[in-house]
Specification:
Helices cover about 55% and strands about 15% of the residues. The chain is an alpha/beta fold and about 220 residues long. Strands 2-1-3-4-5 form a five-stranded mixed beta sheet, sandwiched between helices. The termini are far apart.
Length: about 220
């Protein structure tokens, strides 16, 4: 039995849209039952389709990335998003080798010729950029080694203390998400969807460091 996640979305916070979310959920649950799919989670969202950083869709991407779900169930392709946001999400989900099923297509999502071409271009560009990054890194490393400037031992952080490397996390994004009243657990899940492998405790620690520094700076100004 394949594992699937249901994603439902409306674009406004109006109470009248609640019936749409319920209808989407009920129809998708019926589709899952008929196709012998195991639903691991139902994600509901009230956000604009032009926003590709929606907490709900980021949670879906995180589930797929962690192999918790292999199929995404949606009412139709517009539920994923609008314009560039939709194509970017389809590209990301396809790249993670997951399937997208829609009620409108009665199965795997159907793309028109233009959408297929866009996905092919995105894939080619992404592969080319990765090749360039790898070549640039290789050239830079060779240059440092040849000049004698590169010392591998000097790049081992905390080698004497036996501590772990300090993880790189997007502090501005943590602050922004916290201002939206997201829990540290939800923020960690959102960041994982963006490609940052961070835990709830790491997010909490970095946010507290930011708050403590901010309070300290304010006290200094008052002196």
């Amino acid at each position: 039995m394949k594992k699937a996640v249901i994603y439902t979305r409306v674009s406004t916070q109006k109470d009248s849209q609640k019936s749409s979310l319920k209808r989407q959920k009920d129809e998708l649950l019926s589709y899952a039952a008929k196709n012998d799919l195991k639903i691991i989670k139902i994600v509901e969202e009230k956000e604009s389709g032009f926003n590709e950083s929606r907490p709900g869709i980021l949670e879906v991407l995180d589930l797929i990335k962690r192999n918790k779900a292999e199929i995404l169930l949606i009412q139709d392709s517009s539920r994923l998003g609008r314009g560039n946001a939709k194509m970017a999400l389809i590209h990301q989900i396809t790249k993670m080798e997951a399937e997208i099923h829609t009620l409108a297509d009665k199965g795997a999502i159907a793309l028109n010729d233009l959408e297929k071409m866009i996905l092919e271009i995105l894939s080619v560009v992404e592969n080319y950029q990765q090749e360039l990054r790898n070549k640039n890194i290789s050239r830079a490393m060779k240059k440092k080694i040849n000049s004698g400037d590169f010392n591998p031992a000097a790049n081992l952080k905390n080698i004497d203390q036996g501590g772990r490397d300090r993880k790189e996390v997007p502090l501005k994004e943590i602050i922004r998400l916290r201002s939206l009243d997201l829990t540290f657990k939800d923020i960690a899940a959102t960041l994982k969807g963006l490609g940052y492998d961070v835990s709830k405790s790491t997010v909490h620690r970095r946010y507290q460091e930011y708050k403590n520094k901010k309070e300290s700076d304010q006290e200094i100004k008052q002196l």
